[in-house]
Amino acid sequence: MELVQEHPVWKLGRLNHVAIAVPDLEKSRNFYKNVMGAESVSEAVPQPEHGVYTVFVSLGNTKIELLGEYGDNSPIKNFLEKNKTGGIHHVCIEVDNVSSAVQDLTKRGIRSLDPKPKIGAHGKPVVFLHPKDCGGVLLELEQA
Amino acid sequence: MELVQEHPVWKLGRLNHVAIAVPDLEKSRNFYKNVMGAESVSEAVPQPEHGVYTVFVSLGNTKIELLGEYGDNSPIKNFLEKNKTGGIHHVCIEVDNVSSAVQDLTKRGIRSLDPKPKIGAHGKPVVFLHPKDCGGVLLELEQA
């Protein structure tokens, strides 16, 4: 009899968004809206509690989230100093239960940047996993 | 009368994949399959003509493409030298007509890395746009 190891207490879902940090949000907004012709591009929304402006670019099956700096302590400040023209900042994947995911992943040696989920820019609980434990990628998990 | 500027000759589509270059493909494959519990993770497929191994991680609405180095002249060699633990390498968006897209984007000042589309790892015409013209992001366009 073969033992099939079921993934235990939480379930990985859809790719919610790819986040791109940019030095000039209006220029990048224009790029996706008018040059690339994306079907829907939001206005820039200030997110004071997250230190960023966000613009959502809808691609049908998922979205690109453009991030611009907001305020003096923006979490993307260092990233933009290292990546002057901008770059892909993180990938966000949905999970059915973000608390269970964090608990389980911690046991498996995958660190979170915060001990507990916080409320993210979409008003849902999110957590960021440590890039060193995820193949160099900043992974955000968001409650579906 | 308001003039609405229609996007002309080609149409942007779905996010086809997010490509992540990693130093240890089997380790990353294991991470997405057994730690994150992704619903479907392919075997590593050698792509000699592209200088990479690919692993596809299905996320329901789109996929992550893990890239490992293949051979001595892999196009991800420099990237992995700069990003020792790996990182997000490019984003691939589908278009209805990749030749029209390249022609139109060139007129708008967006450079391609190759003058004409090539056949990509999925057997479809693709082109990579210059990161400096796309907010620091290496954008791949793939014929849908």
From TrEMBL, chains A, B:
Annotated organism of origin: Paraglomus occultum
Gene3D superfamilies documented for this protein: 2,3-Dihydroxybiphenyl 1,2-Dioxygenase, domain 1
One protein family per Pfam: Glyoxalase_4
Keyword Isomerase: yes
Keyword Isomerase: yes
Function description: Methylmalonyl-CoA epimerase involved in propionyl-CoA metabolism.
NCBIfam families from the UniProt entry: metmalonyl_epim
EC number: 5.1.99.1
InterPro entries: Glyas_Bleomycin-R_OHBP_Dase (IPR029068), MeMalonyl-CoA_epimerase (IPR017515), MMCE/EMCE_epimerase (IPR051785), VOC_core (IPR037523)
Source species, domain of life: Eukaryota
GO cellular component, one term: mitochondrion
Family, per entry: Belongs to the methylmalonyl-CoA epimerase family.
VOC domain boundaries: 14-144
MF-aspect GO terms: metal ion binding; methylmalonyl-CoA epimerase activity
Protein name according to UniProt: Methylmalonyl-CoA epimerase, mitochondrial
GO process terms (BP): L-methylmalonyl-CoA metabolic process
Protein keywords: Cobalt, Isomerase, Metal-binding
Record field: catalytic activity: (R)-methylmalonyl-CoA = (S)-methylmalonyl-CoA
